[in-house]
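Amino Acid Chain and Its Fold in Token Form
===========================================
What this section holds: a protein sequence and its matching fold, both as plain text.
Structure line: whole-number tokens from a learned vocabulary of local backbone shapes, matched to residues.
Purpose: to set a sequence beside its fold so the mapping can be learned.
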Amino acid sequence: MLGPMQRPGPAALAAEHAPCLPAYGDHSLADLVPALLDRARHLAEGTLPAFLAAPVAAAPQVVLLVLDGLGEQQLAERPALAPVLSALDGSPLTSVAPSTTASALTSLATGATPAEHGVLGYRLRAAAGVLNVLRWTLDGADARGLVPPHGFCRRPPFLGRRPPVVARAEFAGTGFTEAYLPGADLRGWRVPSSIAVEVRRALAEGVPLVYAYYDGVDKIAHETGLGEHYDAELAAVDRLVGDLLDLLPPGAALVVTADHGQVEVRDEPVRLAPDLLDAVGLLSGEGRFRWLHVPPGAVDDVVAACREAYGHLAWVRTREEVVAEGWLGGRPADDLFERIGDVALAARAPVAFFDPADTGELRLVARHGSLTPAEMLVPLRTAVR
């Protein structure tokens, strides 16, 4: 039995008493790309999802712009900084669980839930270690030899089609790109001003969908928080949205969304009590969605200890509870299930949980991964030229 532990971190409870769950099959990120790819059929059959306006579905060409890290709440708080984007039609979607880039971008591209595609977080158990999915490393070393990217994700991107993907040129050939966008038609850009150039070139080819991705909002939030640098980046992003609207051919549509929102975490990460760490074999996930890998027979004790010590800071769930409550969008296949831990700490207060093996997270100011509305709600804004 684990001994008593000190309650760390802020004393105040988070405002949200229940997690903001992904709306899989209704209005989640996983539902967007399938709706756009088959928009003409949905329009003809009268089966358009509620989030997809008929004029967008009728558009011969659609540009889908994904702004990494721009949450609905952060956008709604700053309409004057993003007048073009704020004036567009639309309503929020939910991200996925965990609300992290690796899982959310994969769900967006594949139209599948994390349980279905298997990219179940930012850091996952694999090859007797913890795989950093975005960097595709194990213990800081390239992991492609031990964990081949091809086949790691169990669903093809874009329902097997190949729309142009306008993204940073540096992403080409990385492990994560090879995992979730195998065979993609990548159109790389080096500086943000080239995004509009590449989108315009793709539209000139007559393709029905162009997927464009920009990560500046997420990067600046991680580095500086949600202050003046974030505001300046949002204003710059709004100019990008205006540029894309201006280049659309008549009848074409622009759809803007994001993979997750952000929460500022100014305090030092919460360090798990020593006796709890002694009872845990491995930590994975990330600061705001920490997985504890527990030896057989110890789960009940670890859950009880976590709820006593951290229940005021986090939703504490067993792996089975996470599945039963619908966080992952189904039950993963047995081999995928092994990628995640046995007990989840999903932060509901503005805190992060420290992993001694992932000290790079100490430098993050704004974070995401958990199930608060600030992280889970993302914008969906549309316009037709």
